[in-house]
Amino acid sequence: MARRRKWNPATVTSFAVGFILGHLLLHKESCSLRPTFETTAEDLRTAATPLERSPGPEDDVGKGPNRGKTEDLLFVGVMTAQKYLDTRATAVYRTWGKKIPGKIVFFSSEGSKAPDSQPDLPLVALPDVDDSYPPQKKSFLMLQYMWEKYGRSFEWFLRADDDVYIRPDKMESFLRSVDSQRRLFIGQAGRGNQEEFGLLSLEYDENFCMGGPGVIMSRFTLAKVAQNVRYCLKNLYTTHEDVELGRCVQKFAGIPCTWSYEMQTIFYHNGSGNAAFNGSLKKKEIHRAITLHPIKDYHNMYRIHNYFKMLQVREEKFNRIQVQRDILAMASLLQEKEVLTEEESNNVTLLGKPPGLTKFRPINYSELLTWDFLQRSIYSPSKFNPRMKIGSSLQEGLEDVVREVMDMINMYSKQRGRVIDFKEILYGYTRYDPLHGVDYILDMLLVYKKYRGRKMTVPVRRHAYLQQQYTGVTIREIHLEKESPSDINNTDSSSLTVGIKNVLGKSINKLSRNLPALLFSPHSPLALSHTESYESINDKTINFILPLSGRFDTFRRFVQNFETVCLNNREKVSLMVIVFPSEQENTTQRIVDTIRGLQKQYPNTQIRYVSLYENFARARALSVGATHYESRDLLFFIDVDIVWRTEALRRIRRHTLSGASVYYPIVFSEFDPQRVYRQGVSPDNFAITERAGYWRQYGFGICSMYKSDLEKVGGFNTSIVGWGKEDVDLFEKFVKIMPESKLRIFRAPDPDLVHVYHPVTCNSKLGEEQMAMCKASRADSYSSMNLLEEELRQRAHNGVR
Prior knowledge:
Elements: H1 9-26, H2 41-48, E1 74-79, H3 85-94, E2 102-108, E3 123-125, H4 136-150, E4 156-161, E5 165-166, H5 168-176, E6 185-186, E7 189-190, E8 208-209, E9 215-218, H6 219-226, H7 229-234, H8 241-252, H9 263-266, E10 267-269, H10 284-288, E11 291-293, H11 299-334, H12 342-351, E12 372-374, E13 378-379, E14 387-388, H13 392-409, H14 413-416, E15 418-433, E16 437-450, E17 456-469, E18 478-480, E19 496-498, H15 507-513, H16 515-519, H17 534-538, E20 542-549, H18 552-567, E21 573-580, H19 587-601, E22 607-611, H20 618-626, E23 634-637, E24 642-644, H21 646-655, E25 661-663, E26 666-670, H22 673-676, E27 693-695, E28 703-706, H23 707-712, H24 726-737, E29 744-746, E30 749-755, H25 768-780, H26 785-798
Helix pairs in contact: 2-6, 4-6, 6-8, 11-12
Family: Belongs to the chondroitin N-acetylgalactosaminyltransferase family.
GO molecular function: glucuronosyl-N-acetylgalactosaminyl-proteoglycan 4-beta-N-acetylgalactosaminyltransferase activity
EC number: 2.4.1.-
């Protein structure tokens, strides 16, 4: 029988103590940004005691909006170059640099000076440093300067490039959630790309913080780097500045860059290069990020900044709605009706109602709100075509709604150990509530992912009942000087005051009367130059250029309209007719005789014609007509089928600005009056109804511009002959120069410009593209969908196939 072994008490005690100590070491609590080893008391004493220095004028450099405040959270050092001071550096300082919870300073080469456009730019010209690449010496000396001058003044230190955007509010929240007394090196960890792997002299467990999206160091880490700059500069293994900084931190601070997958979203690097952040900013990656990199085009820095400011404004509006709801709820509980004024009570009652799809109560059947059905297309009972493509505005609205819904769903996902991703909208409904907002009912396909405990990935469906509520009306007064509307800072008692006092009252009329002043606000892309006042615009002469071949009866109607609207009212206009030969006998001579009659009757108005003895080509005609005018003249290209009223002339003058805007009005085009009115001529050309005609949204033939702007794009393509295409070609030329030019296209429906119906004949000699355009125009002008539907029903009722 085996003998039981006896345990020595000393052995048992040693085993128990060892087991407990081992258990404690394995389960020791640490921060999510855990360093390699713990910070010692000696480390903290070293980090808290900066190198000795004498105070200098640099102490106040770059304090910006925080001057005089006790902001001591973050110091930002931006590494830049002399050639970027006037562009990238200035853009950084004017945008996120103004909101940093601390101080920002820009570091450049020796001899660098602040640009004239931003003389107060906080700039340090590092001695014995140039702008050569790679900027390793600049980077290390910048960090040394930061420690020597500001090491005891701030908790955190950020090394940034001049092509990164930082969200100051989110950065502050992030840093205040981390213990700054620890030795930390925070950023997006990297080990080099595939080609560089194994060539950066990194050990298997070493990494570096990628410099582009920004690198954050605690006071201890910065101290260790700054005190060993000379060694790190003498022992460079690669040409990558961020790799060498990471190697220096690893050697002297003993810590790597934060090994955390989450850092890829916090410090977001877009791999698209120069194309990064040029498109839509409504993406979850951008919304989640604290830093965005790279922003090579400094104009995008302002664009991104404005976008985030817009998000803040939207958040503030939502907070105001929440306050309105609280007020309404408290007033209801207290049963106090006299707490608010009548106007305040109306606003609170309208805006303070909790969200819901039943807030709108129709009085009768005609006020019922119809729902549009959404799937891959939109099916609407209020449209001629019941199935249509989802428009860009609705698509963008849906994306905004889905993104906000998913943010709410995943608000506490990290604590719960799961995440829910959006896949697609299976179907939905939407409608516009005129008083409360936009309503949505969405059936969404989601993916539920659980990564804590028993892991699983399951597709789920979820219904969402949503309302994007309208906010209150914002009232703003704009003061415009009569002599120089572009100078908004020097207004006097004679200024025009445009305001909205009561949206539902008499101010609507006032707003319409002062609409020109609103259009010419200095903040508008159509703002006038200092040399052009609003009155001078109204005095501009409109030079009509009309190509014509035959069609004498139509030309006679055009002349009558020109007399009635322009000549009899003494409008400042001129007329240039480009006459082509006609197949009809004596037609050309009758046209010329009519023009000469106008010249005799109105000698004070410039009325001319040019005869071209060649085949009709609209591009050629308009180009010839434009040569008879100066660069400063306003040209209006028109067709003989157009009729107009006086207000159309006002819009042409207002929306056509030299060097700023070309005007492409959307003309109303009549359907065949035989089908609409059962007669050959329309009784009223200006009856703007869905039954009478349609808006020519894809017609670009009627337009106005200054000749100088026409010359900028090279004029018309005179190689285009026959019907159509020359107008689209010119429009595309203006579109192409818009990114590099201040010139913009103003396009809007004009109810005072009407294209009178006439039969369209497509010449068999037209090219394939022109023939397709001609046939499409002929089909569009035939009839409305409602009329065709009525006719088909009538034929079916009468037994006609």
